[in-house]
Amino acid sequence: MAFRWASRFRDVRVIVFAAAVVGAAAPAVADDAGAELYARNCAACHGRALQGSGLGPALSTATYRYGGQREDFVRIIRAGIPSQRMPAFEGILSASEIATLADFLPARQGAESEDTPRDFSRRKDGGTVHTLDYVMNAEVFVDGLQTPWALVFLDAHTALVTERPGRLRLVEQGVLREAPVAGTPEVFSHTHEWNQGGLLDVALDPAYPENGWIYLSYSHGLPAAGGGQTRAMTKVVRGRIRDHRWVDQEVLYEADPSAYNENFWHYGGRMALDAEGRLYFSVGDRGAAEQAREPTRPNGKIHRIMADGTVPQDNPFQGRADALASVYSYGHRNPQGLTLEPGTGRLWATEH
Fold first, then answer.
1. Which of 46, 190, 266, 332 is catalytic?
2. Distance CA 155, CA 143 (A)
3. pLDDT per residue over 170-189, tens digit each?
4. Residue 212: what pLDDT?
5. What is the pTM of this model?
6. How far is CA 124 from the centre of its chain?
7. 256 CB contacts (<8 Å, ≥6 apart)?
8. Contact by Cβ (8 Å): 199, 216
9. Tens of pLDDT along 92-137?
């Protein structure tokens, strides 16, 4: 099969995927439009039979590094990967040609498995990190922590970090203060290998410089009755730090004891505050997925309250007897990412 390639691509090093794979099959139909596009634009780097070369890795569902589904191919072909010196083909190929080429490449089917082999290089001392679209220079901000779950900056040189076992740590000028903040609430952090509970998120009040309020979410345990296992649920409090001690604590959200259960997972716990002083926080389904659909249950929800714990009058379920007034959205599994979009104030969440 004859193919042409532009001389300006001779020195381009295309590393779109992980290590090479042996035995990739050649395109089945030589005169197929996708095969022709591949031969003309890609084969010089990725090999005539998709087997890879010194300029680019093999194209195989077993070795893709930057995603392996059709939409990934479209994005990568169109925009390139500057960090790997792969050129963008937008402007060289039309949208329909990019789509045809994406259809030609062997794609992974369905959702990616957690067992899918990957080749992500990780350095404990930081260094260059390649993402799907960017190259970032990473450096260690602080080490010596045990399962850090959240970080917030008090100012340009001071940060608070939560450690899931229950410690709130202060980092000053990049140095971790040895003693944790004293007096923080006791958390339920089970020793089971599936445990996801403990001290979770930390957030600052929008007016923190004036009022000093700091918000914590954590897994709260209730004593076991009759020698049974401790039951737990997500809880939210706020307080201040004075002389390296947690003081002035106020409970903002605590579920009814009937909502607590013995599962070790899916606490949610992420928080976000908007400019109007409303606090959004997530509660995972606590391993009871069917309850996430029930507005009368606190789990599997994103809640919205005022920063003092009261419920806003414009909450969607306010005033209804068949729902909790604090519920803002329901049907969630385990939301552990929560942020407000700048400019619009729209709430975005990611969940497992």
1. 266
2. 19
3. 999 999 999 999 999 999 98
4. 98
5. 0.68
6. 20
7. 298
8. yes
9. 999 999 999 999 998 887 654 444 444 444 445 668 877 767 788 8
Is residue 86 scored above 80 in pLDDT?
yes
CA 65, 66, 72, 75 torsion-angle sign: negative
Within 13 Å and on the Cβ side, how many CA atoms surround 65?
20
The burial of 196, by beta-carbon neighbours within 10 Å (0-12 exposed, 13-18 middle, 19 or more buried), is given as buried
CB 315 within 8 A of CB 327: yes
User: Do the beta carbons of residue 282 and residue 301 sit within 8 Å?
Assistant: yes
* 24 touches 50 (CB < 8 A): yes
Contact in structure between 81 and 133 (CB atoms under 8 Å) = yes
Instruction: Enumerate residues 6+ apart whose C-beta is below 8 A from 294.
Output: 330
Q: pLDDT at residue 57 above 50? A: yes
| Sign of CA pseudo-dihedral 140, 145, 147, 149 | negative
- Please give the mean pLDDT across all residues of the chain: 85
Dist. CA 144–CA 280, nearest whole Å: 30
Is 244 considered catalytic here? no
Q: Are 205 and 211 in contact (CB under 8 A)?
A: yes
The whole-angstrom separation of Cα 166 and Cα 195 is 13
The whole-number average pLDDT for the span 238-262 is 97
How many angstroms separate the CA atoms of 19 and 38, rounded? Answer: 20
Question: How far is the C-alpha of 28 from the C-alpha of 47, rounded, in Å?
Answer: 15
Residue recorded with tokens 């890795």: 57
Token couple for 267: 């606490």
**pLDDT of 48 higher than 80:** yes
Residue 181 is predicted with a pLDDT of 98
CA–CA distance, 99 with 87 (Å, rounded to integer): 17
Task: Tell me how far apart the alpha carbons of residues 109 and 117 are, in angstroms, rounded to a whole number.
Answer: 15
